[in-house]
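Subject: sequence -> structure tokens, single chain

Hey, anyone have a minute? Need the predicted structure for the following. Not urgent.
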Amino acid sequence: MNAISTANDTLPTGFIPVMLTPFLNDGRVDYDGLSKLTEFYIETGVAGLFANCLSSEMFELSEEERIQVTKHVVEQVNGRIPVVATGTFGGSMEEQAEFVKKIYATGIQAVIAITCMLAEEGESDEVFLANTKRLIELTDGIPLGLYECPVPYKRVISSQILKELLPTGRLVYHKDTCLDDQEVALRLKEGEGFKFGLYDAYMVNAVSSLRAGAAGLSCIQGNMFPELVVYLCEQYNNSEKAGDLQKVQDFFTNCMDLVHTAYPTIAKYTLQERGLPISIHTRREVEELTPDLKSAMDSLIKEADALYDEINIEKMMAV
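Reply:
Had a minute. Here:
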């Protein structure tokens, strides 16, 4: 599979997965597993990679691990596709700007700012805007993105905030979690004319967001079934495949609850079942991966396998 790209965009269009971080059973980062996982993503046709994000267990990584994990991914990719990574973890804007510079120096294409780290919960949009503009001033032209991360609290920005920030020319990526297709359309309207891409994380609205002009998708389901997400990004506007597109969209809509349960453990289990030699160890406090959950995921994997065959797409081997 080949990732879709456009020459005029800073980041390519298509699927940018939020990467997992494999750990050894003793809790250390499994860098060999991370190399294999990176190669698996690339083989499935992703357009880029989002390292050091919530799915990567970024809050459970030390500052040095955040740098080393991101650097390892960049070196493994070796220029084949762009990599982005989170760069804001609290503190003053000056402190956050310093880490933005550090992680950008790993060779990533853009640094993603977590929206809830740019203003305290309960603070106004005016405070958020002032802090974000200050971060922009302090980061020496580094390409930036925004990420409506749900932890430690979820701060959803408005299309009006984008209208204020896009003229800086610094925002190239937005991981969207507003869950509202009408708001997505408003955000896309504000992004017209800028080198800016909106990547929707909400798979219920995957096809509708792509048809409205989203640059791509950036969802947790892609850690389990990346080929199907790539398929949506490549074929969403192909009227001859309308029936198949609806089947894939329905598949993701129907499994929303399951894939979010015991995450990211359940995603690591799925990759294990697909052949990737990683453990299911996580540093996050999540639900137990019970036998019932494993059985439900086993059934979903079989359903996905049947869907691959039905719509005639290649399932990559995670080895």
